[in-house]
């Protein structure tokens, strides 16, 4: 019985070795199959690249790209010229707009009854003593009240 037990253990070890060997062979077969599929795929990609290279006209593409670059440069020059012309045309309009805005401001001031030069002319030219300042402040309050009354009457109209 002891001999049978020893023999059985040896057979078990041999079976494990055979199982391991068979697993190794199986992995090698899978690797070879993967390599074969990779080679087939590469062959297909190579034939596709070869057909694309055959249909591609490199000098024609270079000619088209050169023509595109030339036309793009011409368009840039025309755009620059148009921008310059528009800027030149707008310069005169800016001066006209400035004059027109000054006229409108003057018209609004005239409607309100203010004259800028007259208001500045009434301003004191020198520093007065404290009593003169209080009299001037009272006059300014009367002027403000009069201006407010004018503004109110314009709003009602």
Structural class call reads mainly alpha
Our estimate of the beta-strand percent is: under 5%
Large-scale geometry = elongated
Helix content: over 70%
By DSSP, the count of extended strands is 0
- Whole-number average pLDDT? 82
Work out the radius of gyration.
50 Å
Explain the overall architecture.
With 157 residues, the chain is an all-alpha fold. 90% of the residues lie in helices and 0% in strands. It contains 4 helices and no strands. The mean pLDDT is 82.
What does the secondary structure layout of this molecule look like, with pairings?
Elements: H1 2-55, H2 58-112, H3 116-121, H4 130-156
Give a brief description.
The protein has 157 residues and is mostly helical. 90% of the residues lie in helices and 0% in strands. The protein has helices at 2-55, 58-112, 116-121, 130-156.
Question: Which short descriptors sum up this protein?
Answer:
about 0% strand, mainly alpha, about 160 residues
């Amino acid at each position: 019985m002891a001999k049978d037990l020893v023999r059985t253990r040896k057979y078990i070890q041999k079976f494990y070795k055979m199982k391991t060997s068979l697993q190794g062979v199986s992995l090698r077969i899978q690797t070879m199959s993967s390599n074969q599929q990779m080679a087939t795929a590469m062959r297909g990609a190579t034939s596709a690249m070869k057909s694309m290279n055959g249909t591609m006209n490199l000098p024609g593409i270079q000619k088209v790209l050169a023509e595109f670059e030339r036309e793009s440069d011409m368009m840039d020059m025309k755009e620059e010229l148009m921008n310059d012309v528009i800027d030149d045309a707008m310069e005169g309009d800016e001066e006209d707009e400035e004059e027109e805005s000054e006229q409108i401001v003057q018209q609004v001031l005239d409607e309100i009854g203010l004259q800028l030069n007259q208001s500045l002319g009434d301003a004191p030219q020198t520093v007065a003593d404290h009593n003169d300042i209080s009299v001037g402040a009272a006059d300014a309050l009367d002027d403000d009240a009069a201006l407010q009354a004018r503004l109110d009457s314009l709003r009602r109209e």
